[in-house]
Here is the input.
Amino acid sequence: MSPLTAEAVFVAPRTLPEVYTALEALGPAATLLSGGMSLMPMLNRGIGPRDAIVSLGRVDGLAEVTLRGGRLSIGATATHTAIARHPLVARSAGVLATAAGGIGDLQVRNRGTIGGAVAHGNAGADYLTVLSALEATVVIGGSAGERRAALGDFVLGLRSTDLRHGEVVTAVEVDGSAPDAAAFLRYHRVQGAAPTITAAAVIRDDRTVLAIGGATPTPTVVRVSSVEQALAAVDAACAANPLGDAHNPPDYRRAMAAVHTRRVLEEAAA
Amino acid sequence: MYIGERVEGRNNRLVVAGAGTYVDDVRPEGCLVLAILRSPHPHARIRRIDVTAAEGRDDVELVLTGESLLAAGIAIPPSGSYANFTPRMTVKHPLAVGKVRYVGEPVAAVVAHDLVGARAALDALMVDYEVLPSVGNALLALEPGAPRVEDEWPDNVMVEYPFEKGDPAAVLGATEPSRIRRGTLVCNRIASTPLEGRGLVADYDPHRRYLTCWASTQSPHILRTLLAGALDLPDSSIRVIQPNVGGAFGGKIPMFPEDIVTAHAAIVLKRPVKWIEQRHEYLPAGGHSRDVRCDYEVAFAADGRITALTTELIADIGAQSTFLGWLMAIVSAGCIPGSYKVDDVRVRLRCVVSNRGPWQAYRGYGKEVSAFFLERILDEVADAVGRPRDEVRERNFLTPDVFPYEQPSGWITDSGDYSGTLAKVKDLIGWEGFAARKAAARAGGRRLGIGIGHELTPEGSSRPDSLLSGTDSATVKMSPHGDVTVLTGVTSPGTGNETGIAQIVADCLGASLDRVRVVQGDTELCPHGNGNYSSRSLTFGGSSAHLAALVVHDKIRRVGASMLDVAPGEVRLDGHRVIAPSGAEVGFGAVAATIYRSPHARHMEGVEPGLEVTRTFKMDNVHHQPEKDGRYNQYPTWSFSTAACIVEVDEETGVVRIEKFALVHDSGMVVNPLLAEAQLHGAITQGIGASLYEEIRYDDAGLPQNLTLREYTLPGMRESVDIVLGHQSTPSPFTMMGMKGVGESGISAPAPAIASAIEDALSDLGVRLTEVPFTPARVWAAIQEAR
Amino acid sequence: MIDIELTLNGRPRRLAVDPRESLVDALRERARLTGAHVGCRTASCGACTVELDGNTVKSCCVLAAEADGRAVRTVENGAEPGELDDVQVAFAEAQGMQCGYCTPGMVVSVRNLLDRIADPDDDEITRGLAGNLCRCTGYVNILKAVRLVRDRRLGRV
Ligand SMILES: Cc1cc2nc3c(=O)[nH]c(=O)nc-3n(C[C@H](O)[C@H](O)[C@H](O)COP(=O)(O)OP(=O)(O)OC[C@H]3O[C@@H](n4cnc5c(N)ncnc54)[C@H](O)[C@@H]3O)c2cc1C
Ligand code: FES
Ligand code: FES
Here is the structure.
């Protein structure tokens, strides 16, 4: 494939270093494309630069799922479908597979990737919630080398992350040993709408981590000591950083955060 | 007999192959792409549009603005007169002149070589706006001193339409307060959202001075006439062709600003130009419906009989545009009190302009609004007198003996048996015995509820002094081989009426169905007709085809009988043959051959030659002769349905799940049950969508909140419901074969039925639902309020 | 413009595309396969559904350039004009469409569903088609059509 005009470019490198080089060469006009399920709808509406696309779609090995040194590593371009079906994910982090299998619809899952979802940082996104409860680490690559960040530090706000230009999410890592118990719930108004609330609870060695997405700009994460304490903490977070839209105003999301806090904790404990 | 048979749709095998030709599949050689720049502001003055950068691009052929269209003499003056109200009108501009009035209003157009280039050219257009204070809804627009949407008007009220019957004020005054209820009901805004957007391809031949347009339209003839007016061309210089249409539901009639701009561009450039609407353009700017608020007062007797009803309707019709949707509000008003006998009624409607998007026709056409209001009021009355909801409806229904019945609006309801559909739907849903189910479910922690909703669906809209009048035409012709072609003025935007028309003609002629072809949607081929709207395609199109077929039938009969040497009265026509009592027969092919080849021979004596007949059908019971207090009858046939449903409500989240939905419709005689049922499935699902999932929202400034289908959420397969249908047939005394329209039936009843069922599920809490759609957040809020 | 090579409905095909162009536009405008339709361009409606390397995708939100070297299957599927497969026949017979705008995408999704699951129940059918919107049918006859082709393949009818 060879670009014939200088006006618009599409590059699909085979290696990450080539991706970094391309991003640097193209500068701020470059748009990084993974599954396109969040990006393409915007580009198609004329939102965002679209003349220089760097695709991750052909980077060798970037979709791999591995279990190494007690960590489950999921490559950035692993699709939601692949994650939902992967035996290693099912074994080590079943809730992640559950979450992946419920995102959007089949066609969206066949294209959308975990790296794209994490980089997009949308409130209520299934992955952000479940990965928060799994206390995931984001692996970030760039020409200056690799760095790691806890998911909670990586996602800064509504659709805003700590990603700098030229950097790429290369993988997401979680504990490779299966939790003692876990549950994931998604509540969405109707097929095709973004989830209103996503909720995940992960219990490991009597430690329960709860994450509630959709009621605050970034997931609310609580180390749970009791249901009442969790409810109070979630409610306080919703009050401090409310989120809402026309169909699901903040007071409603706040109430639903409470309902799903209870439901997901019950389900995980069951 | 083909009428009454479940004949598969004639286009099925074409469209399922992906071989249908929709407007975006029309691609004349060298076709350019037109894209529209739209206003990002609800209300702003246009100071300047800088087109130089866009025009400077290599692949840009043309840039148009409101000023350039004005310079070309293109503007749309107000037209149409209205018998009993006088709307304020304005001159319309296909591209905004001076100021913009809603987000999405067309401001400029670019023509480039392809979509990618056109988008880049849009980015290069610079518009300098002076943002003006805006009014994001009708209530704000009605406030004293509110910013005015139309500078020349004294306020934001476009039309006021009051009417009264009896003396409701006196009755209300004489009723004890416990027998009066007052309240406010709201139908929020929705959008018809056919899966295919709007679009038009225009190709101008400068040598012949002839414009050919392929349009995703419901009404090719009307579009042609309106385009001719807007572009100052003779009607005969324009041909409008309707290719396959990917759904319309009222949303593609009669003409849009973009149609004019695209046709004008093709004329200027002398090259084919295509405009295809994108979904993010459609949602704010393709036209909405509903958005009506009703303040009511109702008085009733101890048995639930309504003694007086007053309704103040405020319709937020958005910004006025070239669209005609605002007339829906008139229909909402005109259908009160609809199926119910109330002798003392007052209705006052105000259509208010705001900086929301304009209205556009949508299935239901206002009748769903009145149905929602009326049914909610009936439920409230039932509750107030402590009588069952079905019984209170029975108590108030118009009875079959009163028809034809003059509504307070002056419109005349042809026939009906409302108790009949109510009784049948109660059987289908399991009305009796539900209380026990509900109690058992409640004991198990589940909240089930049952509800009913009734709708009245006047059809065949025939507006006075309008191209959308009450006639339509058809040509039936038989070829020398005996093959039949029907050309109709009605069209099928995916509704399947071509199949029904073929069935009617085949039966009338005694022809084989597979030898009847129906051709629609081409102004050069088909006789003048109004196209598809208001479920008129079979009542008008089928009837006109029937009239024309009768003439052809008569010729075939006479010539065939002569060929069989018997009297014309003795033969019958069946299976594409003329059959004598003896069993002797002659095929239509031989008869047609005789008519064409031997016009001077014996069998043609006294028979007019030729086998092509055009007839125009006019509804008998429409009258636009305002002898009656300036009133007129716009609707010839009045279909109706009663729906019932069972829902489960999650009281913690407000989520409503429909467990079972049943609807009994009465659309008179049904030509093709397979297709009629398919229409009902679609209408009911749209009705459910608008009850639970769909809502066009604006903020107070008029900024739209739904720009994609992820916010304007249509029901998907996961939301689909197992629909149980029942039929009743009360033939219309006024139409051929007693047909009534079916296309809109089923869209109105779901909202009140679902509301009623939700309230029933929460009956111990005393929840009242006054606003549709019943989104989880609204249901939840209503529960909190009741607690 | 860039050149891409793909296997289109089983045959090798070379197309020159704009780097910004969606696969659906390349299929419709350049390969002249107009069965895939555009209803939203935001991956919501599924009218543009095609198979990419055996998986269904919404081709409005896949760049044409990304299909380079891959296999694309559309509703046309290389069939002769007038030739229908069993999925299509079932849709026609069950009146699983009205305007037909969603139908090609539905057909692609149903083919893919039945390739993955030979005997899907209603719930699996619903999940398999959740990404395909239809505004006309209320899905009632679509469900009937899928049951019909399933049962025919399994010799139940
Ligand atoms: C109809 C529909 C329904 C959906 N429903 C849901 C749902 O229910 N729940 C849910 O969570 N999501 C949903 N989504 C979103 C979906 O999960 C997306 O796949 C996801 O948000 C983005 O992943 P992607 O690979 O498609 O990323 P892209 O769209 O390719 O990219 C998204 C953004 O991230 C950047 N980016 C992508 N990859 C990387 C990377 N590796 N490193 C750095 N930056 C990167 C891009 O530049 C872009 O800004 C839905 C989407 C659609 C269209
Ligand atoms: S056009 Fe691709 S999903 Fe709607
Ligand atoms: S048949 Fe019209 S959208 Fe499905």
Q: What stands out?
A: Chain A touches chain C through 32 residues (CB under 8 Å). Confidence is low (pLDDT under 50) at residues 1-6 of chain A. The two ends of chain A are 54 Å apart (CA to CA). The longest helix of chain A spans residues 250-269.
